[in-house]
Amino acid sequence: xMIAAAYPFAMTESEPVEKDSSRVDAGFVSEESIxxxxxxxxxxxxxxxxxxxxxxxxxxxxxxxxxxxxxxIYAGTLAHLxxxxxxxxxxxxxxxxxxxxxxxxxIGAAIPASILLLGATRVIDDENAMWFALWAEVAALALLGYxxxxxxxxxxxxxxxxxxTTALFGLAMIGLKVIIH
Length: 181
What we know:
Largest sheet: none
Number of helices: 7
Structural class: mainly alpha
Radius of gyration: 17 Å
Distance between the termini: 46 Å
Mean pLDDT: 82
Order of helices and strands: HHHHHHH
């Protein structure tokens, strides 16, 4: 099932795009993955303020992302059952499209959650784990911005501008962490 059929205006499937894009790329380069990265950064900033350990933050992130993932699937399914007559879907099709679309939430949260888990298992220091997770999010956001414009075959300077603009959201969260601490 193509995302374009379920979401005709989705950035991940808009024309012109590369025709050989994988499903992982469609989940990774999405507003859901950007949203997940920013959401997780906010959780790290807030939890870090309270002195929580990487282990505690890992579980807060995991629980929050699971709730958002399930809620996003539910909302997407309901929305597609009630769209106009030309885009109306059956329940199963709407559910599958919502699961595919919502996968970006899990994909986006996986990188910082993995780094927090490294801190929780003492592979890296707790405080460093939170900082590494935040900087990894900035890098992931930059990659998302770059790939989004690359899929639209934008010139390299525009791709770089897209990367920098998207990374600014992560940098804003790091700025908040610095101010809060």
